Amino acid sequence: MGGTDVTDGWDWRQPGGAPTPAAPPGAGSPPAGPPTAPDGVHQGSATSPWWSDALADPWRDPYAPAAVVVPGPVDGAAEPEPVVDPDAPGRPTLRQLLLIPLITALLAGTLGGALGYAFAVRGGAAGGPVLGAGSAEAPALAQRKPESLAGVAQRVLPSVVTVRVASLGGTSEGSGFIVSADGYVITNDHVVAGGTGKASVVFNDGSTAAASVVGQDPESDIAVIKVASATNLRPVEFGDSDALAVGDPVLAIGSPLSLANTVTAGIVSALDRTMQAGDPGGPTRYYAAIQTDAAVNHGNSGGPLVDSAGRVIGVNSTIKSLVADGQEAGNIGLAFAIPINQAKRVTQDIIGTGKARRTVIGAQVGGTGAASGGTGGVRLASVEPSGPAAGAGLRAGDVILRLAGRPMTDPTDLIALVRKFAPGSVVTVEYRRGSSRQNASVTLAADVK
């Protein structure tokens, strides 16, 4: 077969065979070539640069050993100067060896101390057990819902004060609440009774102010005092005591047993619970009270009873107790408050005129209906000729069975319920005369003192 031009400067041959000469252009036989090396590769001539280094180049000869030979140093020649990398790390000095563990120890100690403090604060003493399950943060007081008990207490407490009155026998202490921005305060008459007319109040933030007694009504157990130099006072909001129902939730706020800013909770447990109270030798007080099971003790007197909206619906006044006379009484779940509609009316009278009007029916009670042969009711012993009862056609001997729909069973019932209404109120009276029952409308009047 014919030869082929090899462009890299050597002749191709079969392994173990003779080289195939390349034909020169235009000739049928190869020209005389360069001498052949022992391994069969032609030596390059002086005129052929392709063969000048063929023996030393493994990539020119496919049969040359695939190795790179680095020539050794020439005998007698100087060793080359070693090359040093200026960026290569050097051998650490003694100072560096000492600083590294010192800095490591300081960092480890600082980190350990911080972690230990954090665990101690969050989980108690170091190494102790973590008590309690994780939970969300408790809401701050400002986040309490306004209709919650805490929200109501927060709103009313700034309007409640502790009342202190000096007397010859010492200092009387009770509670009260602010009813006007100019400093009027409602409290009980028995809190200021026997005093010198001078008083002081302690606000819920602990600040104090001087006060004076404006007026008092012993029979309704309401008194009014006024704070001197009143500034930034927050009056209470009034509710409607006639709109209450048994079971309504209430809060009693005051300073029982000298424990200021005390809040207790309960419900309205009865309405129009007629009360006759008073100290021996003192005036007899009659009122149709709001009964509650909220804890009320000595010192709560004069403080507010508020509804679930934070509105004052009564003035805490009396408690019932099982102790004997002369012993200190305590709460047994029966407390009584003057309805705020009555207390507000008496307060306005005292501020306006210095004294309160007393609502009357114009008759005297003489006992129960059983005394006249009946089975219930309150018998009228006498009737004033020009009074409200006479104007409605009532006579002495008539037995009042109901007043404004409320049953009468005791003389105290008639007196207390009449005083609950304002003068000029028209009430329906159901009465018995002999064996017949009749109804009458009576327009109540104010007693002229």
From TrEMBL:
Superkingdom field: Bacteria
Keywords tagged on the record: Hydrolase, Membrane, Protease, Transmembrane, Transmembrane helix
Keyword flag Membrane: yes
Residue ranges of every copy of the PDZ domain listed in the record: 350-433
Alphabetical list of Pfam families matching this protein: PDZ_2 (PF13180), Trypsin_2 (PF13365)
Annotated transmembrane regions: 97-120
Family: Belongs to the peptidase S1C family.
Protein name (record): S1C family serine protease
Organism: Micromonospora harpali
Upper taxonomic lineage: Bacteria, Bacillati, Actinomycetota, Actinomycetes, Micromonosporales
